[in-house]
Amino acid sequence: MIRVGVVGLGKMGLSHLSMIRAHPDVTVGAVVDSTAYLLDILAKYTAAVAYSNYEEMLDTANVDAVIIATPTKYHFEMVEKALDRGIHVFCEKPLCLTSKESLALADLANRKSLVNQVGYHNRFVGTFQEVHRLLQQETIGRVSRVLVEAYGPVVLKAKGSTWRSRKSEGGGCLYDYAAHPVDLLTWYLGAPAAVGGTALGKVFSAETHDQVSSTLFFPGGATGQLSVDWSDESYRKMTTRVTVWGSAGRIFADRQECQVYLRDTAVVPAGYTSGWNVRYTTDLTDPVWFYLRGEEYSAQLDHFVQRAMGREVQGVNTFSSAAITDRILEMLTTDDGSGPTTFQDEAPLQNGAADVVGAGRSGRRIARRTQNVAGRFRAAAAAFRSGGA
Amino acid sequence: MDKLLFGDNQFFGVNHMSEEKARAQAMQFQDLDAVMSVLTSAYDAGITTFMCTTHDRVSEICDHVRSQPERFSDFTFHPCMPYAHKYANAVTENGILGALRKFLPDEGFLNAAVRGGKSFAKKDIEGIITLLVDAEMTMFRGLSTPVIWLQNVVVDLLLGLQFDDAFKIFSDHVKQRYNAEPGFITMNLPMLLNTLRVVGLQNPLVCSNINKIGFRMSGGIEAYRNVLEKHDFRAVAMSVFASGAIPPGEAIEWIFEQPNIEAIVFGASNRSHILSTQALVDKMVARPRI
Questions:
Q1: What gap in Å lies between CA B185 and CA B81, rounded to an integer?
Q2: What is the predicted pLDDT for the residue at A126?
Q3: Same domain, A18 and A49
Q4: Are residues A12 and A133 located together in one domain of the fold?
Q5: In which band, very low, low, confident or very high, does the pLDDT at B115 lie, cut at 50, 70 and 90?
């Protein structure tokens, strides 16, 4: 048995609380929120031990682990305080607003041998796990391109009063929504060497953005395309899907099904044949102890609980892996800010930036940009290496 | 209760097997005429109970049925509340309290002052729950609603939170104000039955996934079998085909081998599928018991 504290009682926090309270190996020792109203109701009707002060809870509730589901801007400080006290941490995604902070937390957790996990639940979806398994086995040969998409109805009008509408708090489609498909991409292909062509588009949001598109360049030569829109009301709920093209076939997956086309050249895995194969969620999903809103949400919490009980620091969705995703979110923001090559710009010469210098104002601009971009990519790659990601 | 109840997933783009199919169905049923055509086929085949969410579009179906009282004299609704996505999206946008305020009826704050004495201010959850139920029930005014269901997302959220009083509050309100039988939809049947027993709900009506492959039957197929045999609740089975993973004949035959299942909810997007499911059930009903 472990004692768990649940911190932040929004939509994710409440659903985590419900699932974890039903877990046979868990006692919920505390709930924490800044809204006294909700705390009072939970205390009155569910006998929850309620705290409005996070540190007081850490110091007095005697919990082994915390589940943190507060707005992203609070994550770093809250996670650090828990780790400092020797408490295992499950934190909602994204881990931090900067990859530097995420790497620092990963380092701290690893040094103290504490279990750490981030809520990228797609890695617990049966169909997406099947894609991972097939890619690990190189079933479709050399991967050349991956398209990850996420669409859904979140911001449907020009208004919004919560932290999700404020960029400074980790709101916006990139951090709040695109983080999921980005994380899937890194699960499948690892850390990218570079990103380009990023456009963070607005549909309704004033302070932040509602659409993300970009290309990620991976070390082996593969590219990943990202297409995300949280202002698309033609979708009933968030829909994430992935398409992978390889030299020996193609894989498409969403939450419900995994469609695989294998060429004659593919090494066909057991249970598959050449040509079309379809696997459904009903085949690919393991049962869970308690179902609230999808097996993956239950399964990720169970993974955390089992790891915490066994003090297994390694596992799925560690802080180190979430730091890669956070780094990409930064790269996408920077790339969007630097803007595209314009129609008026002259084409850069084959021999590189140095030859362009002196070729006029636009040429110099390109030269500067080329050098800046190259420098940034080198810095990014160095940061990853030094972070051990 | 009828042996076969007609569900509404197909009308609102819900398909647990394929998102492509879900979208094709959302397109197919964009017009009310297409929805009513399928519902009328079911009704004319003798499947007169429509178990539906409180999706905004259901109010159009309600209006249609209300407008032809003779044509639809036996038409029965089993409202399942709430349509969770409208709340979930509102919580994302407005926070939990903001969403609650948004969905309480306009009369809500006034009414709340009367009902239970300023429910909101006093954190009187009974007043809030009953107001939300009333808001969801508005569209069914004047129609037959002998059973009112609480959706699984809400039931299971409350179950996990150990918010046990809510089940009793819902049950009492549905009985008293609507003279209806309360029903509970869940993905965690054995666990829910324990809780309902603890709060004193006798022989409750509970709908859950029951299918041959154990799909979304949390607690395990054996535990489901045990509670069905004990029979201290009224069982309604949904997802009997496990979203198409089990061939229809095999799925229905297995359901009839299980003890004490009172009714089956199913969805279909055309008349021939309705009739073929009905034929399978009729065949099993007519089969001599051993």
A1: 10
A2: 97
A3: yes
A4: no
A5: low
Please write the tens of the pLDDT for every residue from B204-239.
Answer: 999 999 999 999 999 999 999 999 999 899 999 999
Q: Which pLDDT value is given to residue A353?
A: 45
Verify that A182 and A266 share a domain, yes or no. yes
Look at residue A333 and tell me if it is in a domain.
no
CB contact under 8 A, B95 and A10: yes
Complex confidence, ipTM: 0.90
* Cross-sheet strand order for the sheet of A50-51: A50-51, A26-32, A2-7, A65-68, A88-91, A116-118
Q: Which strands make up the sheet holding A275-280, listed edge to edge?
A: A194-201, A211-217, A223-229, A143-151, A239-246, A249-253, A257-262, A275-280
Give pLDDT, residue A378: 56
pLDDT given for residue B243 in this prediction: 87
Strand duo B4-6 + A275-280: pairing: unpaired
Q: What pLDDT shows up at residue B124?
A: 75
Reported confidence tier of residue B110, pLDDT bands at 50, 70, 90: very low
**Gap between the Cα atoms of B250 and A245, Å rounded:** 37
What CATH number is attached to the domain comprising A226? 3.30.360.10
Low-confidence stretches of chain A (pLDDT beneath 50): 352-367, 370, 387-389
| Boundary of a domain, candidates A262, A284, A306 | A284
Residues A233, A369, single domain; the answer is no
A282 close contact with B: CB closer than 8 A: yes
pLDDT score at B120: 60
* Pair A105, A60 in one domain: yes
Is A292's CB within 8 Å of B153's CB? yes
Q: How far apart are CA A252 and CA A197, in angstroms?
A: 24
- CATH architecture for the domain at B4-82+145-286: Alpha-Beta Barrel (3.20)
CATH number of A307's domain: 3.40.50.720
Taking the CA atoms of residue A174, residue A175, residue A176 and residue A179 in that order, the dihedral angle to the nearest 10 degrees is 80
Please give, rounded to a whole number of angstroms, the shortest distance from the CA of A41 to a CA of chain B. 6
| Residue A21 within any structural domain of the chain | yes
pLDDT recorded at residue A358: 40
If one counts the domains in chain A, the total is 3
The verdict on A208 and A314 lying in the same domain is: no
State whether A305 and A369 are in the same domain. Answer: no
Query: Residue range B52-81: average pLDDT?
Result: 96
Q: Determine the pLDDT at residue A351.
A: 52
Domain that holds residue A184: 123-284
Q: Nearest to residue A280, comparing CAs of A130, A124, A120, A122?
A: A130
**Helix/strand/coil for A161:** coil
CA–CA gap between residue B280 and residue B283 (Å, rounded): 5
Domain boundaries of chain B, sorted by first residue = 4-82+145-286, 83-142
Is A331 among the domain residues? no
Mutate which of A282, A283, A289 to test chain B, going by most B C-beta atoms within 10 A? A282
Whether A16 and A26 map to the same domain: the answer is yes
More confident residue, B100 or A182: A182
**B38-65 pLDDT, tens digit each:** 999 999 999 999 999 998 899 999 999 9
For B23, name the nearest residue in chain A, comparing CA atoms only.
A235
Q: What is the DSSP letter of A178?
A: I
Average pLDDT over residues B244-259: 95
Q: How many CB pairs under 8 A join A and B?
A: 126
Tell me the sheet residues that pair with B135.
none
Whether residue A330 is contained in a domain is answered as no
